[in-house]
């Protein structure tokens, strides 16, 4: 643990330009989709993050040859020799990521059976997989839960089904997509999640030969096909990372240009950012032409000076305010005048990180009540899932231990915004989802060092 610490000398505004690559929450799923093809796939702009390494390792164990392509960030997947892996080999990846659960459908199609290790991912509540298993059973899979993990088989093949999710879960929607595309017959999924990363996964699957219709009102219809081929895809940029740097610019009274950030996927965030008093400017991409090298688009975010304003926001499924945007932005809200309110409706336990902010001088109270009108599953179940942030508060340095990925980035922002020298322990966790974050901090003029 002592090696895994970053010393942050706070109080300097972040200034400069960084670039975001393909969205973590699409890239890892597109990698799994490559298993379904009968020819190689190419994925561009893949960030060098831990989640990608985990999926790469699991694909390798199942016989998918993964190589680096010619372009920086390009990966090539050759699924010609898909094979079973031993439970011992797979268990090496136990607890490291949530993505293994998405191997179920593709492995059942390719091998007729699947073993899924104990899942990991961020500790932000119980994170059950009941919707996934219910969906897989609807397709005809049998699921055997054992102490070492899940054993699945499909003795009679997988068949299309009509199914409604109890909640528009991102992962369960992806599970259904990755299973239905090659199941026999038609699948109709109601109450599906429609996050931009899911639409991009649908684009990947369509490129592979799938037939998928996205209807209004969260209904997705999938016509199963007997075979799929490889894809070539450039993913949507990471809108969570982009918003994290935007929040860091605001909290440190800085100015950060995020190349690659896309307005369309971030509209809800941009509205809140402006309501708080932050400013931004969108630059569109321009393709290269004769005599013109072109321009990579992005969004510049900055603190215009003066005081920030308090806001009320509720996290929600798309097109609502993403739950992953909440933690970084709350650090900036500690600097806003008045009372800001955050009602977290996606995860029941995603406000624990506020204790660390309070230890730095923030004034944040968390409540079990629903402080907002969005229908929520947590109010009656006694979870502390609403926060009231009173500001502005002067933040001072502290020793912090990172609890999970997004909360970890918020701790980092708080340390950068605070006066004095903080020690942030467990920072390697941030590499799960933020590529080269230390190099990017250096590019933005942050004073950070490994002791
Ligand atoms: C994805 O997680 C993302 N992870 C999360 O990002 C993100 O916060 C989340 O979607 C919401 O946008 C990846 O894409 C790898 P869910 P996922 O299924 O798919 C409940 C990050 O930091 N639920 O939409 O696991 C669940 O408990 C991560 O990048 C069930 O009850 O999220 C939660 O309350 C963190 N049963 C809600 O649904 C189930 O079987 C939404 O979860 C599945 C989910």
Automatic annotation (TrEMBL):
One Gene Ontology term of the molecular function aspect: UDP-N-acetylglucosamine 1-carboxyvinyltransferase activity
Pathway per the UniProt entry: Cell wall biogenesis; peptidoglycan biosynthesis
Record localization: Cytoplasm
Sequence positions that bind phosphoenolpyruvate: 24-25
Reaction equations catalysed: phosphoenolpyruvate + UDP-N-acetyl-alpha-D-glucosamine = UDP-N-acetyl-3-O-(1-carboxyvinyl)-alpha-D-glucosamine + phosphate
Catalytic residue list: 122
CDD domains: UdpNAET
2-(S-cysteinyl)pyruvic acid O-phosphothioketal: residues carrying this PTM: 122
GO biological process: cell division; cell wall organization; peptidoglycan biosynthetic process; regulation of cell shape; UDP-N-acetylgalactosamine biosynthetic process
GO cellular component: cytoplasm
Residue numbers binding UDP-N-acetyl-alpha-D-glucosamine: 98, 324, 346
Occurrences of domain Enolpyruvate transferase (ranges): 9-441
Keyword Transferase (UniProt): yes
Top-level enzyme category: transferase
Record keywords: Cell cycle, Cell division, Cell shape, Cell wall biogenesis/degradation, Cytoplasm, Peptidoglycan synthesis, Pyruvate, Transferase
Record flagged with keyword Cell division: yes
Family: Belongs to the EPSP synthase family. MurA subfamily.
Function text: Cell wall formation. Adds enolpyruvyl to UDP-N-acetylglucosamine.
Protein name: UDP-N-acetylglucosamine 1-carboxyvinyltransferase
Gene that this polypeptide is encoded by: murA
